[in-house]
Amino acid sequence: MPSSALTELRLHLVPAGCRLDFPRLPRQFAYIYRRHHNLAWECIAHNACSPHLDRNPPTGALVEYKVCYCDAAGTITASSPVVQIQTHPTGMPTNSTLLGLR
């Protein structure tokens, strides 16, 4: 399995949350994990497709994400490096607020 395929986890802050872009590996299932403040990793998506939208990232925190790839037996066969992103502080307006949509 090429290691370069596993280093392409990319995060983007969008008005709806945090978008994760990651490669799809043949015959593998992607599980997305998230943590903040060095708490335990939380699985937020099973058998995820890319792009994945995390609609509820912790606000105003440095959030870490990683993708683990499992085979049909549920064995982790590969994982992405941990990627960090700073989320918006609480109360920051979203695009819908800026447009007057509520």
List the helices and strands and how they pair.
Elements: E1 10-14, E2 17-21, E3 29-36, E4 42-45, E5 52-54, E6 62-70, E7 76-79, E8 83-86, H1 95-98
Antiparallel strand pairs: 1-2, 2-5, 3-4, 3-6, 6-7, 6-8
Written account of the structure:
The chain has one helix spanning 95-98; strands at residues 10-14, 17-21, 29-36, 42-45, 52-54, 62-70, 76-79, 83-86. The chain is mainly β and 102 residues long. The protein is globular, with a radius of gyration of 15 Å. Strands 3, 4, 6, 7 and 8 form a 5-stranded antiparallel β-sheet that branches. Strands 1-2-5 form a 3-stranded antiparallel β-sheet, with no helix packed on it. It has a single domain (3-96), classed as Sandwich (Immunoglobulin-like).
What descriptors fit this protein?
single chain, 102 residues, mainly beta, Immunoglobulin-like, five-stranded antiparallel beta sheet, three-stranded antiparallel beta sheet, 1 helix, 4% helix, disordered N terminus, disordered C terminus
